[in-house]
Specification:
Elements lengths: L1 E4 L4 H13 L4 E4 L7 H6 L7 E4 L2 E4 L1 H10 L11 H31 L10 H21 L13 H9 L14 H11 L2 H5 L5
Parallel strand pairs: 1-2
Antiparallel strand pairs: 1-3, 3-4
Helix pairs in contact: 1-3, 1-6, 4-5, 4-6, 5-7
């Protein structure tokens, strides 16, 4: 198997965390998104990473890849087999894609990548809008974690890795997490996991 990815991509990290956690051996193919994307578009018409190539099977979308890797790994516990437990994990994957990733993606672009890509200074209105959205979502997660160790069930799952990856630039984005003690405690637990430490990006 080959995984086309980039260390600085939070979507890629969702997958590399799973690869590391499960001890999967595959070839990582670094992708520089600032350069020509012809080869990438041939694999993924969305021109985005990560992309998994397993023989003649090409799969894109980070959550789909993460689930596929779990399905191929006997005995794994990141994606439960029991229907309700699995649905609960998937609920958070969908929530991460539809809500948290949207606001964090805008904030990362405006605050980190826009000027680097020649787009000028951050748009204060967009930043303010998505910071408000983020606090609404952070309050939700903080409440959910008030009496829980992990996002779903009693052990780490894809839900934890997905949401933590989305928050990987919390410091660079100056996200104000002080009001969310449960969220901060959970992030500390995720950051202490071997897979998290093994997938830290190199700047």
């Amino acid at each position: 198997m080959k995984l086309y990815c980039a260390d600085l991509s939070s979507s890629s990290r969702r997958v590399t965390l799973v690869v590391s956690h499960l001890g999967i051996e595959l070839e990582r193919v670094p992708v520089d998104l600032s350069k020509d994307r012809t080869e990438l578009v041939a694999l993924n018409p969305n021109s985005k990473i990560p992309v998994l190539v397993d023989g003649d099977f090409v799969l894109w979308e980070s959550h789909a890849i993460a689930e596929y890797l779990c399905e191929r790994t006997p005995g794994q516990t990141l994606l439960p087999s029991e229907p309700r437990a699995r649905a609960d994990v998937q609920r958070w994957l969908f929530w991460s894609s539809a809500h948290l990733s949207v606001s964090l993606g805008v904030l990362a672009f405006e605050k980190m990548w826009k000027k680097y890509l020649g787009g000028g200074e951050p748009d204060p209105a967009r930043v303010a809008e998505h910071e408000r959205n983020f606090h609404t979502l952070a309050k939700l997660v903080d409440g959910h974690l008030a009496n829980r160790t992990w996002m779903s069930g009693k052990a780490v799952t894809l839900a934890d890795y997905s949401i933590a990856s989305t928050l990987m630039y919390k410091d660079k984005l100056a996200l104000a997490l002080e009001p969310y003690a449960s969220l901060r405690g959970w992030l500390a637990r995720v950051h202490d996991l071997p897979a998290w430490k093994q997938t830290e990006p190199r700047w």
